[in-house]
Design brief:
Blueprint lengths: L1 E2 L2 E2 H12 L14 H8 L2 E6 L1 H6 L1 H10 L2 E4 L5 H4 L9 H12 L3 E8 L6 H4 L5 H18 L6 E6 L13 H6 L3 H12 L4 E6 L7 H15 L6 E4 L2 E3 L7 H9 L4 E12 L4 H20 L3 E6 L9 H4 L3 E2 L12 H10 L29
Parallel strand pairs: 3-4, 3-11, 4-5, 5-6, 6-7, 7-8, 8-10, 9-10, 10-11
Antiparallel strand pairs: 1-2, 10-12
Helix pairs in contact: 8-10, 12-13, 13-15
The chain binds ligand G3I.
The site of ligand G3I has 9 residues, from loops.
Length: about 375
């Protein structure tokens, strides 16, 4: 529609050119087209959300619905929130996120089922036999995955199974009680509860290769060889400005060559304070690089940004001295990082797009692994 001599997109672009410091090499298209661009490439562009602002904050809601195609609950689907007491389930937070996604035509990622953090004390401090813990895990999966069956397409079943620095398995509650094969057990259980869901191991510090990445690769290979229903690897991607791995696409391809899909599940790029304008500008290229890496890898399903804006990011609390990790500033104004994602998605969609979004993986649950055809 033409208004006062310009189309909506032209007007927005012209306005940005007047107001944005990066307008010189500025956005090739309107950021409001991000969802359409992502869909044209057959990938999701997701964001992690908190419940309260999703309910009450108009600026937050606008950013979410205007720029993303998929939601991950940042906290509210974690065990301590969903089942704070044994057998007592709290659905208001998860329902809010699911309802928002569905009413805006967005996809959902489920986060997360087995993790060493954010467990309720009745679980983490309980004394369990293996049979009891299996029963507790099944009850939790049946309640949570069961409630959203057919609506949440992918689940981070296993979160951060390796020690922070790797390469050894973390000796969390599940490991201690069930043994190291808890990962295979949990994946089988999740598959029984929701046979259609894509089941992930989600991990950090694996994105640039190295010992931890190798250990995860070995684990994934072993699980697939045994026919365990593992479908994807989540590359969390909590990066530091200046240290975003160049070889991200290469590392992803290593896993997709196994027949797995991959997703960038928790992208942010934290900047050391004082945050300079130069660093903010450079962050544009870092976000572009990550989204472009996903587009370069045919088995990459999408990129999720961890936090709607800098005011809602986990970074300042967890990494004092760092900030500005997301594509929107504290007032929900877009930052160059957003245009970095636009830059990446503005390229011509390739053949990967057609039909790739819902494509299955190369492995067959419970059967022999198929190597992808090249
Ligand atoms: O629940 C309390 C609430 O009762 C209290 O009123 C409030 C006061 O600050 O704190 C609430 O707890 C916060 C919790 O999130 C909300 O569930 C904690 O302070 C806060 O530290 C906690 O941080 C979350 C963190 O996981 C916990 O490990 C972050 O928001 C969340 O972004 C982060 O997410 C993880 C992913 O799940 C896995 N990968 C790493 C990523 C970053 O740690």
């Amino acid at each position: 529609m033409a208004v006062a001599g310009c189309t909506a997109i032209m007007c927005v672009t012209a306005l940005l050119a007047l107001t944005q410091p990066w307008a010189d090499d500025g956005p090739p298209t309107d950021a409001g087209e991000l969802p359409a661009l992502a869909r044209a490439h057959g990938v999701d562009l997701g964001v992690a959300v908190a419940v309260e602002p999703l309910l009450w904050d108009g600026g937050y809601q606008d950013v979410v619905e205007g720029h993303y195609t998929s939601l991950t609950a940042e906290n509210t689907m974690k065990w301590e929130h969903v089942q704070p007491e044994r057998g007592v389930f709290e659905w208001s937070g998860p329902d809010t996120v699911v309802h928002f996604a569905e009413s805006h035509g967005m996809d959902l990622r489920g986060h997360t089922l087995l993790w060493h953090n954010q467990q309720p004390s009745w679980l983490s401090e309980g004394v369990w036999t293996s049979a009891e813990l299996r029963e507790v895990l099944r009850e939790h999966m049946e309640a949570l995955m069961g409630r959203y069956q057919g609506r949440i397409g992918a689940w981070d079943v296993i979160n951060e199974p390796f020690e922070d620095g790797g390469p050894f398995l973390r000796e969390n509650l599940w490991y201690q009680v069930l043994g190291e094969d808890y990962i295979a057990e949990a994946l089988w259980m999740a598959h029984e509860v929701d046979p259609e869901a894509r089941l992930y191991i989600n991990e950090f510090n694996i994105e640039g290769g190295g010992a931890k990445s190798d250990a995860l690769y070995a684990l994934a290979s072993d699980l697939l060889d045994r026919g365990v229903p593992l479908h994807g690897i989540g590359f969390q991607s909590h990066f530091v400005h200046g240290q975003v791995p160049e070889n991200l696409a290469e590392t992803m391809t290593r896993f997709t060559d196994l027949g797995l899909e991959v997703t960038v599940t928790e992208l942010d790029v934290r900047i050391a304070e004082p945050v300079s304008e130069e660093a903010i500008q450079e962050q544009r290229e870092e976000f572009r690089h990550v989204v472009a890496a996903c587009l370069d890898v045919s088995g990459c399903r999408g990129v999720t940004v961890w936090g709607v804006g800098d005011a809602h990011s986990w970074i300042p609390e967890w990494f004092p001295g760092y900030d500005a990790a997301t594509p929107f500033d504290e007032d929900y104004e877009p930052k160059p990082a957003l245009w970095g994602m636009v830059d990446a998605l503005s390229r011509e969609p390739s053949e990967r797009s057609a039909g790739s979004r819902r494509r299955g993986t190369g492995r067959v649950p419970g059967g022999t692994r198929r190597r992808p055809v090249r």
